[in-house]
Structures are given as structure tokens and as C-alpha cells.
Amino acid sequence: MKTILRTENVVKNFSGLVAVRDLSFEMAERNIHALIGPNGSGKTTTINMITGAFPVTSGRIFYGDTEISTMPTHQIARLGIGRTFQNLKLFTSMTVMENLMVGGHQMMPSGILRFLIDPATSRKEEKQVEEKAKQVLDFIGMYDLKDEKVSSLPYGRQKMTELGRALMMDPKLLFLDEPAAGLNPSERVEFVNIMLKTFDLGIDLFLIEHNMDVVMNICSRITVLNFGAKIAEGTPDEIKNNDEVIKAYLGN
Ligand code: ADP
């Protein structure tokens, strides 16, 4: 099976605190992969390094055959790596549609400098992004809410908007930081369904998730961190019965 993502001996040091230590793992293509571990074990820091938000202290990260360890965030996004954030990063005073369009414009040739190009090209781009936003809204079941201000929506809808914005950037590999957190049971079922539909579109998923039902039900492979180090890796069944993992969670 082809590897889509690989880290080699990755370390992240925050002025003396080692948040991630010597982390090596691989993710195979066409997979839903989970990164789990107790609070503070280095999961978000790992995503931040892979997506370019934090530089690695040492070690290397590869997306396919391309080394991305030192690439800036926007370049990594353009390669096809998307993400959502644990604390949503939406423009809450803007509408759902406007938030999606911001994501879409970032991937257009003119990007945020679109106002400097000629009006006809700019209008064409605007139309393309708008069409795509409508398709994504339909896909996430939020077309009817497109003109609502994000701040007026329940948390579950805001989270779905953030997923929609990430989809506007045409990811091939999507990182989701705690997708189920804060959702009520019916919102959680809906979000899981949309994640599975997203996977069916051909987008590989990498989740950080605390909800073990979600992890065990939809992920094919799990990497477990504790105190910044990998302590286990395997299928849901292997991880469920792993003594190191049980100890790490009970000790927390
Ligand atoms: P997790 O996502 O598993 O809960 P994090 O990756 O958020 O863990 O954090 C791992 C460790 O790194 C924690 O001790 C946290 O306090 C520390 N940390 C995370 N981000 C920063 C930062 N920007 N500056 C300093 N320390 C940080």
C-alpha cells in the first residue's frame, strides 16, 4: 500500500519542554488514521508540525515523496493537506457562505490578491468559488443555512461549517482536530456520516479524537502518544487490548 504521510524522528521542543519526542509513523493511502493519547501528549503539536503551523525542532516529514518539514503552511495546503481546528477558526460575524468562499479563494490562482487582477477574471473566479461553495454546502447538508451568520448557529453547525471550509481547499489528506468534541449524540452521528462521505470522495482522513466509539468504529489504524512519544500503533482491536495504552489512559 502506498504511503501518503511519513514522519521520521520528529521532535518538537518548546523552550525546554519536549512536546513531541522522536516520533516516526506512517499513514497508508486510503485510510482513516487516528492519533490518540491523553491530554498534553503532543497530538495537536504533531498536526501543527505536519501542516506547517509550527516548525519541527528536528526530524523530517514527507507527504508522498515530497519533504514538507520546512515548507510554509500555504504551500503545504496547496499540495493537498487540509485541516480543521479544535478551537474553530471561523469568521463568526460573516455568513456560512462567506466563510466557505474565503477558503475557496485561498486556492484560486490569484489567491487573496484577486482584487489586483482585471475585473473580468476576478468575476469569473468569484463565480467558480461560489458554485463550489454551493456544492460543498449541499454535501454537508447546510445549503439552507448559507446566509446565516456563523455566530447565530449552534456549535454543531459551526463545526460543520469549518469542515466545509476545509473541503473548499480541495484536500487529498484532511486533518481533523477533535471532530466529535462538544457535539451532542445526534450531531456526532451526523458528523461521522459526513466524515465517511468525505472519505468516500477519495479524501484520506487523519483524526485526533477522544471519543473512543468514533475512533474504534471508523478508523482502520491508530497511533498512540503518551508524553510526546509513540507508545503503540495498530488496528482498533490491537490498540484496545494493548497494555501500554490501557496504562497510559488509566494513569491520566
Ligand atoms: P494534546 O494535543 O495531546 O493535548 P498538545 O500537543 O496540545 O497536546 O501539547 C503537548 C505539550 O506541549 C503540552 O505540554 C503543551 O502544554 C505544550 N505546548 C503545546 N503548544 C505549545 C506552545 N505553543 N508553546 C509552549 N508549549 C506548548
Judging from the principal axes of the Cα atoms, what is the shape? globular
| N- and C-termini, Cα separation | 35 Å
Mean pLDDT: 91
CATH class of the largest domain: Alpha Beta
Number of strands: 10
Q: What low-confidence regions span 5 or more consecutive residues with pLDDT below 50?
A: none
Key features of this structure:
2 domains, 252 residues, globular, ATP binding, Rossmann fold, alpha/beta, binds adenosine-5'-diphosphate
Structure, explained:
The protein has 9 helices and 10 strands. The chain is of the alpha/beta class and 252 residues long. The protein has 2 domains: 1-80 and 171-252, Rossmann fold (3-Layer(aba) Sandwich), CATH 3.40.50.300; 90-169, no CATH class. α3 (96-106) packs across α4 and α3 runs parallel beside α5. The model has no long low-confidence stretch (mean pLDDT 91). It binds adenosine-5'-diphosphate. Adenosine-5'-diphosphate binds next to β2 and α1. Adenosine-5'-diphosphate binds at residues 14, 17, 19, 37, 39-45. InterPro entries: AAA+_ATPase (IPR003593), ABC_AA/LPS_Transport (IPR051120), ABC_transporter-like_ATP-bd (IPR003439), BCA_ABC_TP_C (IPR032823), P-loop_NTPase (IPR027417). This is ABC transporter ATP-binding protein.
